[in-house]
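Reviewers asked in the last cycle whether our approach scales beyond single polypeptides. To address this, we selected a multi-component target totalling 271 residues and predicted its structure end to end. The input consisted of the following lines:
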Amino acid sequence: MTYIPSADDLEVITREVWTSFLDGDPGGLLPGGDGVGAERVTGCVHLSGAYTGSIVLQCSAPAARDAAAALFSMQPGDVTSTEIIDAIGELANMVGGNVKSMLPGPSTLSLPAVVHGQLAVPGAQVVREVTLVWRNEPLVVSLWQQAAQAA
Amino acid sequence: MRILVVDDSKAMRMIVERTLRLAGYDEHEIVHAANGVQAIEVIGVEPPDLVLCDWNMPEMSGLDLLNALRGAGWHVPFGFVTSEAAPQMREQALAAGAMFLIAKPFTVQDFQDALDPVLA
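The resulting structure, written as C-alpha coordinates, was:
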Protein backbone atom coordinates (compact mmCIF):
# COMPACT_ATOMS: atom_id res chain seq x y z
CA MET A 1 0.00 0.00 0.00
CA THR A 2 1.50 3.30 -1.09
CA TYR A 3 1.53 6.02 1.55
CA ILE A 4 0.27 9.36 0.36
CA PRO A 5 1.09 12.24 2.73
CA SER A 6 -2.00 13.40 4.61
CA ALA A 7 -3.40 16.92 4.82
CA ASP A 8 -1.82 17.05 8.29
CA ASP A 9 1.55 16.19 6.73
CA LEU A 10 1.15 19.06 4.27
CA GLU A 11 0.35 21.40 7.17
CA VAL A 12 3.32 20.24 9.25
CA ILE A 13 5.72 20.70 6.33
CA THR A 14 4.32 24.12 5.43
CA ARG A 15 4.46 25.22 9.07
CA GLU A 16 8.10 24.11 9.32
CA VAL A 17 9.03 26.16 6.25
CA TRP A 18 7.07 29.20 7.41
CA THR A 19 8.45 29.00 10.95
CA SER A 20 12.02 28.61 9.73
CA PHE A 21 12.13 31.42 7.21
CA LEU A 22 9.11 33.70 7.55
CA ASP A 23 7.88 33.99 11.11
CA GLY A 24 9.94 32.17 13.68
CA ASP A 25 6.58 31.50 15.28
CA PRO A 26 4.85 28.12 14.85
CA GLY A 27 1.56 29.85 15.74
CA GLY A 28 1.82 32.27 12.86
CA LEU A 29 0.18 29.86 10.45
CA LEU A 30 -3.35 28.91 11.46
CA PRO A 31 -5.58 26.14 10.12
CA GLY A 32 -8.87 27.07 8.51
CA GLY A 33 -10.04 29.93 6.38
CA ASP A 34 -12.18 30.10 3.30
CA GLY A 35 -9.55 29.41 0.67
CA VAL A 36 -7.89 31.73 -1.79
CA GLY A 37 -9.81 34.23 -3.90
CA ALA A 38 -9.22 35.24 -7.49
CA GLU A 39 -6.33 37.62 -6.70
CA ARG A 40 -3.81 34.93 -6.00
CA VAL A 41 -0.24 33.84 -6.64
CA THR A 42 0.37 30.16 -7.36
CA GLY A 43 3.62 28.25 -7.11
CA CYS A 44 3.92 24.71 -8.39
CA VAL A 45 6.52 21.96 -8.60
CA HIS A 46 5.93 18.82 -10.61
CA LEU A 47 6.94 15.29 -9.70
CA SER A 48 7.51 12.61 -12.31
CA GLY A 49 8.44 9.00 -11.70
CA ALA A 50 7.12 6.51 -9.18
CA TYR A 51 4.74 9.28 -8.17
CA THR A 52 3.58 11.64 -10.87
CA GLY A 53 1.76 14.77 -9.82
CA SER A 54 2.29 18.23 -8.43
CA ILE A 55 2.57 20.16 -5.21
CA VAL A 56 0.74 23.47 -5.54
CA LEU A 57 1.03 26.43 -3.18
CA GLN A 58 -1.59 29.15 -3.59
CA CYS A 59 -1.86 32.31 -1.55
CA SER A 60 -3.52 35.68 -1.78
CA ALA A 61 -1.61 38.49 -3.45
CA PRO A 62 -1.03 40.26 -0.07
CA ALA A 63 0.27 37.02 1.47
CA ALA A 64 2.63 36.54 -1.48
CA ARG A 65 3.90 40.10 -1.10
CA ASP A 66 4.42 39.68 2.66
CA ALA A 67 6.18 36.33 2.18
CA ALA A 68 8.55 37.88 -0.36
CA ALA A 69 9.18 40.83 1.97
CA ALA A 70 10.03 38.45 4.81
CA LEU A 71 12.38 36.30 2.71
CA PHE A 72 14.16 39.28 1.18
CA SER A 73 14.14 41.36 4.39
CA MET A 74 12.34 44.17 2.55
CA GLN A 75 9.43 46.44 3.31
CA PRO A 76 6.24 45.00 1.73
CA GLY A 77 5.73 48.21 -0.20
CA ASP A 78 9.12 47.80 -1.90
CA VAL A 79 8.50 44.26 -3.14
CA THR A 80 8.22 43.80 -6.91
CA SER A 81 6.89 40.95 -9.01
CA THR A 82 10.46 39.64 -9.38
CA GLU A 83 10.81 39.09 -5.64
CA ILE A 84 7.33 37.57 -5.40
CA ILE A 85 8.06 35.04 -8.17
CA ASP A 86 11.41 34.12 -6.61
CA ALA A 87 9.96 33.79 -3.10
CA ILE A 88 6.83 31.81 -3.97
CA GLY A 89 8.87 29.57 -6.26
CA GLU A 90 11.35 28.80 -3.50
CA LEU A 91 8.58 28.22 -0.94
CA ALA A 92 6.83 25.82 -3.35
CA ASN A 93 10.20 24.12 -3.96
CA MET A 94 10.83 23.64 -0.23
CA VAL A 95 7.33 22.34 0.51
CA GLY A 96 7.45 20.16 -2.61
CA GLY A 97 10.88 18.73 -1.85
CA ASN A 98 9.80 17.73 1.64
CA VAL A 99 6.52 16.22 0.39
CA LYS A 100 8.52 14.30 -2.23
CA SER A 101 10.61 12.69 0.49
CA MET A 102 7.40 11.12 1.89
CA LEU A 103 6.20 9.78 -1.45
CA PRO A 104 7.26 6.59 -3.20
CA GLY A 105 10.39 7.02 -5.30
CA PRO A 106 12.36 7.40 -7.36
CA SER A 107 10.90 10.51 -8.91
CA THR A 108 12.20 13.80 -10.22
CA LEU A 109 11.25 17.23 -8.91
CA SER A 110 10.87 20.01 -11.47
CA LEU A 111 11.96 23.59 -11.13
CA PRO A 112 9.14 25.71 -9.69
CA ALA A 113 6.64 27.53 -11.87
CA VAL A 114 4.92 30.65 -10.52
CA VAL A 115 1.94 32.51 -11.94
CA HIS A 116 -0.21 35.42 -10.85
CA GLY A 117 -3.58 33.67 -10.84
CA GLN A 118 -4.67 30.08 -10.95
CA LEU A 119 -2.60 27.27 -12.40
CA ALA A 120 -4.18 24.24 -14.04
CA VAL A 121 -2.57 20.80 -13.74
CA PRO A 122 -3.88 18.96 -16.81
CA GLY A 123 -4.91 15.35 -16.26
CA ALA A 124 -4.35 15.50 -12.52
CA GLN A 125 -6.60 15.65 -9.50
CA VAL A 126 -6.21 16.91 -5.95
CA VAL A 127 -5.61 14.04 -3.52
CA ARG A 128 -4.73 16.09 -0.42
CA GLU A 129 -5.27 19.73 0.47
CA VAL A 130 -4.88 21.95 3.49
CA THR A 131 -6.31 25.45 3.90
CA LEU A 132 -4.43 27.81 6.19
CA VAL A 133 -4.38 31.43 7.26
CA TRP A 134 -1.23 33.54 7.57
CA ARG A 135 -1.42 37.14 8.76
CA ASN A 136 -5.18 37.03 8.12
CA GLU A 137 -4.57 36.03 4.50
CA PRO A 138 -5.41 32.66 2.93
CA LEU A 139 -2.92 30.01 1.90
CA VAL A 140 -3.72 26.63 0.34
CA VAL A 141 -1.30 23.75 -0.20
CA SER A 142 -2.41 20.82 -2.31
CA LEU A 143 -0.98 17.56 -3.55
CA TRP A 144 -2.08 16.48 -7.00
CA GLN A 145 -1.76 13.12 -8.64
CA GLN A 146 -1.92 12.22 -12.29
CA ALA A 147 -5.30 10.63 -12.92
CA ALA A 148 -3.81 7.43 -14.37
CA GLN A 149 -1.89 6.80 -11.12
CA ALA A 150 -4.73 7.85 -8.86
CA ALA A 151 -7.14 5.40 -10.48
CA MET B 1 38.07 32.16 3.85
CA ARG B 2 35.72 32.38 0.89
CA ILE B 3 32.35 30.64 0.68
CA LEU B 4 30.47 30.32 -2.62
CA VAL B 5 26.65 30.06 -2.29
CA VAL B 6 24.98 28.61 -5.40
CA ASP B 7 21.18 28.74 -5.68
CA ASP B 8 18.83 29.89 -8.44
CA SER B 9 16.66 31.63 -5.84
CA LYS B 10 18.05 34.99 -4.79
CA ALA B 11 15.89 34.82 -1.66
CA MET B 12 17.50 31.52 -0.69
CA ARG B 13 21.01 32.83 -1.37
CA MET B 14 20.24 35.71 1.00
CA ILE B 15 18.84 33.31 3.63
CA VAL B 16 21.91 31.09 3.38
CA GLU B 17 24.17 34.12 3.76
CA ARG B 18 22.17 35.36 6.79
CA THR B 19 22.34 31.89 8.32
CA LEU B 20 26.10 31.74 7.78
CA ARG B 21 26.47 35.06 9.61
CA LEU B 22 24.21 33.89 12.46
CA ALA B 23 26.17 30.65 12.67
CA GLY B 24 29.33 32.62 13.38
CA TYR B 25 30.94 32.62 9.94
CA ASP B 26 30.60 36.39 9.63
CA GLU B 27 34.28 36.97 8.96
CA HIS B 28 34.24 34.86 5.80
CA GLU B 29 33.80 36.38 2.38
CA ILE B 30 30.55 35.14 0.86
CA VAL B 31 30.01 35.20 -2.91
CA HIS B 32 26.95 34.12 -4.91
CA ALA B 33 26.14 32.28 -8.13
CA ALA B 34 22.69 31.55 -9.58
CA ASN B 35 23.48 28.17 -11.16
CA GLY B 36 26.24 25.70 -11.89
CA VAL B 37 27.49 27.51 -14.98
CA GLN B 38 27.92 30.77 -13.09
CA ALA B 39 29.55 28.87 -10.24
CA ILE B 40 32.22 27.45 -12.55
CA GLU B 41 32.96 30.97 -13.79
CA VAL B 42 33.33 32.24 -10.21
CA ILE B 43 35.48 29.29 -9.17
CA GLY B 44 37.69 29.76 -12.22
CA VAL B 45 38.45 33.36 -11.25
CA GLU B 46 39.09 32.79 -7.56
CA PRO B 47 38.56 29.35 -6.01
CA PRO B 48 36.48 29.36 -2.81
CA ASP B 49 37.28 27.38 0.32
CA LEU B 50 33.77 25.90 0.41
CA VAL B 51 30.83 25.59 -1.99
CA LEU B 52 27.26 25.50 -0.61
CA CYS B 53 25.02 24.45 -3.48
CA ASP B 54 21.37 23.85 -4.25
CA TRP B 55 20.56 20.62 -6.08
CA ASN B 56 17.81 21.52 -8.51
CA MET B 57 18.75 24.51 -10.69
CA PRO B 58 18.41 25.59 -14.32
CA GLU B 59 21.39 25.58 -16.69
CA MET B 60 23.40 23.13 -14.57
CA SER B 61 22.21 21.21 -11.50
CA GLY B 62 24.20 21.03 -8.31
CA LEU B 63 25.07 17.40 -8.93
CA ASP B 64 26.27 18.18 -12.45
CA LEU B 65 28.38 21.00 -11.02
CA LEU B 66 29.95 18.71 -8.45
CA ASN B 67 30.69 16.08 -11.11
CA ALA B 68 32.19 18.73 -13.39
CA LEU B 69 34.42 20.06 -10.61
CA ARG B 70 35.65 16.62 -9.60
CA GLY B 71 36.13 15.65 -13.24
CA ALA B 72 38.32 18.71 -13.76
CA GLY B 73 40.41 17.88 -10.72
CA TRP B 74 38.92 20.54 -8.41
CA HIS B 75 38.63 19.20 -4.89
CA VAL B 76 37.08 22.22 -3.18
CA PRO B 77 34.95 21.15 -0.18
CA PHE B 78 31.36 20.93 -1.42
CA GLY B 79 28.04 20.61 0.43
CA PHE B 80 24.44 20.59 -0.76
CA VAL B 81 21.70 22.82 0.69
CA THR B 82 18.53 21.44 -0.83
CA SER B 83 14.85 20.79 -0.26
CA GLU B 84 15.33 17.17 -1.33
CA ALA B 85 16.89 15.16 1.47
CA ALA B 86 15.63 11.62 1.00
CA PRO B 87 18.20 8.93 1.95
CA GLN B 88 18.92 8.07 -1.70
CA MET B 89 19.69 11.75 -2.42
CA ARG B 90 22.12 11.86 0.49
CA GLU B 91 23.78 8.67 -0.74
CA GLN B 92 24.04 10.07 -4.26
CA ALA B 93 25.51 13.33 -2.94
CA LEU B 94 28.13 11.63 -0.79
CA ALA B 95 29.03 9.16 -3.56
CA ALA B 96 29.68 12.10 -5.89
CA GLY B 97 32.06 13.67 -3.38
CA ALA B 98 29.89 16.02 -1.33
CA MET B 99 30.86 16.39 2.32
CA PHE B 100 27.31 16.92 3.61
CA LEU B 101 23.73 17.64 2.66
CA ILE B 102 21.72 20.23 4.61
CA ALA B 103 17.96 19.97 4.14
CA LYS B 104 15.78 23.03 3.61
CA PRO B 105 14.31 24.37 5.79
CA PHE B 106 17.40 24.48 7.99
CA THR B 107 18.51 26.03 11.25
CA VAL B 108 21.64 27.85 12.38
CA GLN B 109 22.54 24.69 14.30
CA ASP B 110 22.29 22.61 11.10
CA PHE B 111 24.87 24.90 9.51
CA GLN B 112 27.19 24.76 12.50
CA ASP B 113 26.98 20.97 12.67
CA ALA B 114 27.83 20.61 8.98
CA LEU B 115 30.32 23.44 8.52
CA ASP B 116 32.34 23.48 11.74
CA PRO B 117 34.30 20.33 10.79
CA VAL B 118 35.06 21.88 7.38
CA LEU B 119 35.89 25.46 8.34
CA ALA B 120 37.40 24.97 11.79
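The beta strands of chain A are 29-31, 40-49, 53-60, 107-109, 113-116, 124-134, 137-146. We regard this as preliminary and will revisit it once experimental data from Aim 1 are available.
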